[in-house]
Amino acid sequence: MALNSKLRDLILNSHVPLVLDQFPLKWECFEGSLHDWCQRFDQEASSPPDFELMALADSSTPQWERKRTKASKLSMQQFLREYGVLKEEHTHWAAYQYKRADEVPPSCRRGIDFSSFGFPVIGDDFRLWLGSEQANTPCHYDTFGVNIVVQVHGSKSWLLFPPETPLQSTRIPYEESSVYCVENFYAPDPAKIQSYEHLGRQAYHCNLQAGEVLIVPRNWWHYVEATSTSLSVNYWVPLRVDMDLVLDEFLVMHIVESFVRGESDQMKQYVLNPNQLGDLSTKPSDLYAQFEQAVQNLESGQNTRKLFDTDYISQADWKTLLNSISPTVRPLQVMPHEEYKQLLRANSKRFRNAVSPPESTPISSTWELLVSSMCAPRVIAEMKSEFFCRLRKSNSL
Fold it and tell me: Are 79 and 62 found together in one domain?
């Protein structure tokens, strides 16, 4: 069996995160240094990239995207000069991340190809992430796909938890296909740190270095933070099992949009992630039409993308496959509990240093809890189950 076929089978059947050490990728766009890549970007881009800034002191809650500000006319090379090494005088971190391939100049994405992992036909269906030290994504899980993350330059800390971990989910901020949790791993409150420590029995961790690849299994929670200036590329492998979850996301979208429709811009900016602000449906019937189409697609099995199956080999066969290509691929293990506590204690110092005032909220805590309760994954699953029960009875009459 070819190496890429073996990797595909490992990726699609893994129940724990995997790290591929020093994987031999030959992507033309990343030949040379990070400075070379940034220089080409500036030469070819029609306008300066839209960097986001986040205050280092803003740490009383997770660093939600709504708190970020835009950097005015910051070129890639200026980013390297100003944020390449985080210094004491810095007040913010900076990031250009979650960028689609078509947002990046052609020479800065040329040759990116995931066929080495067994997924040859993806087109430009990948994302690029560039950030300074401390640039982070609040803890969340992706509702769709298996995530392949290629670390190109620099390093990132990944703290991961399996799907069953008792983290408190929230859909505020709302982002399609992302479920956040309220736990603040960037700067845990020292007074609440014991409530975090019990999660350590399910915590996995890796410091992903340049040349390494991380596989994040479906629905795994993850908190990601750059530990140096970092550039990475990721691709979510589309799964057949995810077709069912499309309906869950439509239901969540309808609930959230129902709460904010007609409300102030301040309310919408608080409830919705910035990338969702322009995606509000013009009227509920538009969303219902999309939901009806998704139901038909699910029942007929139709989809415009190539979907992959999971769990088609036994765990015994998976381990045999893993052993056949070790040490190239290594499963992550639960991190030692003392290391987990040290990580929490180190990050909690950011909370003590916080000087920014609390975020003003245009929504009451009761309202926010109600939205998150109605959108909780188990509640949505029950709603969908009830819908299909009624649909089957309707069709049988």
Answer: yes
